[in-house]
Amino acid sequence: MGFFSHHHHEEVYNAEPGQNHEGKFSHELVGGAAAFAAMKAYEDHQRKEGKPVNHAFAKELIAGFAGAEIDKLFETKGLDFLDKEKAKHHAREEAKRAYEQQYE
């Protein structure tokens, strides 16, 4: 995963709930954070299970993790000013791109 995704993750996940304003977060920032969290969840799962996974399945799994992270972020960080579906789409695409860079 790239530096920017890790940076996005730190910025979004370390922010206090309710103290975010529209100018601070964007769909790209939140999507990058969710994609990073999804890749981390996948890598943790792989370490735990020790099983190889089909690349196509893995990309879809990670995209699903990213979508779930967006749901969690919207619930816990008060991001109602952002378009949730746009953020989910961006997170899924970033997660797939991150997987391709890391494993293909």
From TrEMBL:
Tell me where on the tree of life, at the top rank, the source sits.
Answer: Eukaryota
- Provide an example Pfam family for this protein: DUF3759
In residue numbers, the region (Disordered) covers 1-24, 85-104
Q: Can you name this protein? A: CipC-like antibiotic response protein
